[in-house]
Specification:
Blueprint lengths: L1 H20 L16 H8 L3 E7 L3 H19 L2 E7 L2 H14 L8 E4 L2 H8 L22 H4 E2 L2 E2 L4 E8 L1 E4 L13 H10 L14 H15 L10 H18 L14 H9 L5 E4 L6 H5 L8 E3 L5 E9 L7 H11 L2 H8 L19 H12 L8 H7 E2 L5 H13 L5
Parallel strand pairs: 1-2, 1-3, 10-11
Antiparallel strand pairs: 3-10, 4-5, 6-10, 7-8, 7-9
Helix pairs in contact: 1-4, 2-12, 3-12, 4-5, 8-9, 9-16, 13-14
Length: 420
C-alpha cells in the first residue's frame, strides 16, 4: 500500500514538473478572481499558460486545436495554450486521481476533454471544480434544458462540465462497393449482411481506445432489449437478463467478420485503414459533418458516405471539465468559454477542420447576424456525402448509465473475444 502511494506521489510530482516545463506560470494558482466577475477571470488568466489534456490520436484534431484555439487565446487574452496529448482520456483522469492521493494541490491539469465514465469517475472522487459551467458568458447559448446535454452517460452534469461539440455513431460505406439500397439498417440486418459477405465487416474492440466500439456494442444491446429507455439508470437484474442475448448475438456474428472474428481493430484509425485498403466494406465514425474530414485527411477514399441504422445510433455531447486542483482555473474558464464562441463552433463543425462534429450551442440563441450566418453556412457545408439530419434525428439514442460501460467491455473480452 505504501509503495502504491509513493509511486502515485512520484507520478504527480513528475507531471507537475513536466507541466512547468511546458510554460505554466507558477503564480497562476495564486491569482485570485471572482468567477461571476468575468473581467477578474480574464485578468487573472492574462500572461499565463493553460494545460489542456486531450486525446492526441488524431493529427487533424491536434492541428486544429493548435492552429485555431492557440492563436485566439494568445491574441485575445495573452494566454499560451499547452496541448497535452494523451492516448486515452483515462490517462488524464488517473493523473488527477494520483495527485489527489499524493495531496498535490495545485496539480498539473487545467482542462480535460472528457465525457461519460471518466466524468463520473472524477465527479465521484470529488475532483471536479464545482458550479462553473453556467457562469461562462457564452453559457447563455447552451440549451441546458436538453436532457441529451445536461446528462452525460445518464449522469447529471451539475454545472461541472461544459459542452464542446456533439457527435453520433454512424457507419461509412463506398457506394461503388455497397449501394445504398443494399445497406443494413439494423443490427439484425447488419448480421445478415455480414454473413452474406464473409470477412467484409467488423467493428472496433470495446475498451480503452475503443470507445466507438463500445458504443457500437451498446446499440446492439438496445436493439436486443427493445430500446434505450431501460438503460438510462443502472439495474443489475436488467443487465443479467439481457447480457446473455448480447453475447449470443456477437458470438454468432463473429465468424462472419474480418479474420473470422479472431481479432478486431483496436481503434477508429485501424478500422478506417481496413476500409481504405478494401479489406472491409464498412467503417465507423461519430462525425456529424460526414466523411469529408477523413477524406480530406487521406484516411479514407473519396466518394465514401455515411449512413445510420433506423434506430439505436447513440449520440451525445463532448465536454470539457476543470479539475478541482487545477493550477490555472482562470485560464481554463477562458478556454472553455472560447470553445462556445459561435465562430469556433462553426469552425470545428466544418469537415476541413479535421474535427467535423456538431454544435454544442443552440444556433437559435445566437442573436448576432454575422455569427448566425457562420453557423448556417457551416451546417450547409456538410455536403451530400453526410448523413441527412432527418436520419440522424430519427436514429438518435442516448447513452447508457456509465455503470454498464465496464460490464460491457469486460464482458465482451470474456464472452466474445476468442482467447479473452
Amino acid at each position: 500500500m505504501r509503495r502504491r502511494i509513493l509511486l502515485a506521489l512520484l507520478a504527480a510530482v513528475a507531471a507537475i514538473a513536466l507541466a512547468g516545463c511546458g510554460g505554466t506560470a507558477p503564480a497562476a494558482a495564486d491569482r485570485t478572481f471572482t468567477q461571476a466577475d468575468w473581467e477578474s477571470v480574464t485578468a487573472a488568466a492574462r500572461g499565463t499558460t493553460v494545460n489542456w489534456y486531450l486525446w492526441g490520436g488524431s493529427d487533424a484534431i491536434n492541428r486544429f486545436v493548435d492552429d485555431t484555439y492557440g492563436p485566439a487565446l494568445k491574441d485575445r487574452y495573452d494566454i499560451t495554450l499547452n496541448r497535452v496529448p494523451v492516448a486515452d482520456t483515462v490517462d488524464a483522469v488517473n493523473q488527477v486521481l494520483s495527485e489527489k492521493q499524493a495531496g498535490a494541490d495545485p496539480g498539473a491539469v487545467d482542462l480535460i476533454w472528457i465525457n461519460g465514465e471518466n466524468f463520473t469517475t472524477l465527479k465521484q472522487a470529488g475532483m471536479l471544480r464545482p458550479a462553473w459551467a453556467r457562469a461562462l458568458p457564452n453559457s447563455r447559448l447552451v440549451d441546458w434544458s436538453d436532457p441529451a446535454l445536461n446528462r452525460d452517460f445518464g449522469v447529471p452534469v451539475d454545472d461541472m462540465e461544459s459542452p464542446w461539440s456533439s457527435a453520433q455513431l454512424q457507419l461509412i460505406h463506398d457506394p461503388e462497393r455497397t449501394p445504398a439500397a443494399e445497406l443494413p439498417r439494423s443490427y439484425a440486418a447488419f448480421a445478415e449482411w455480414a454473413c452474406a459477405h464473409p470477412g467484409r465487416a467488423t467493428y472496433i474492440a470495446p475498451g480503452p481506445g475503443g470507445f466507438v466500439g463500445t458504443r457500437f456494442v451498446k446499440g446492439a444491446l438496445y436493439e436486443l432489449s427493445g430500446g434505450a429507455a431501460r438503460w438510462a439508470t443502472f439495474d443489475r437484474s436488467t443487465w443479467d437478463r439481457y447480457a446473455p442475448r448480447l453475447w449470443s448475438y456477437l458470438r454468432e456474428l463473429a465468424p462472419c467478420l474480418w479474420r473470422g472474428g479472431e481479432t478486431y481493430p483496436r481503434d477508429e484509425n485501424q478500422l478506417h485503414s481496413l476500409f481504405a485498403n478494401r479489406e472491409v466494406d464498412l467503417s465507423l465514425t461519430q462525425a456529424i459533418a460526414g466523411p469529408a474530414t477523413l477524406v480530406d485527411a487521406g484516411t479514407i477514399p473519396e466518394g465514401a458516405r455515411t449512413f445510420v441504422f433506423d434506430a439505436n445510433m447513440i449520440g451525445d455531447h463532448n465536454y470539457v471539465a476543470i479539475p478541482r486542483n487545477a493550477p490555472n482555473p482562470a485560464a481554463a474558464l477562458v478556454l472553455a468559454n472560447l470553445l462556445l464562441e459561435p465562430e469556433f463552433q462553426a469552425a470545428q463543425s466544418r469537415p476541413e477542420s479535421g474535427f467535423g462534429l456538431g454544435f454544442a450551442i443552440d444556433p437559435r440563441r445566437v442573436t448576432d447576424p454575422e455569427q448566425r450566418r457562420l453557423l448556417t453556412a457551416a451546417a450547409a457545408d456538410r455536403g451530400p456525402d453526410a448523413t441527412p439530419i432527418a436520419d440522424l434525428r430519427n436514429a438518435l439514442a442516448p447513452d447508457a448509465d456509465p455503470r454498464y460501460q465496464d460490464l460491457i467491455e469486460r464482458g465482451w473480452r470474456r464472452n466474445v473475444l476468442r482467447g479473452g
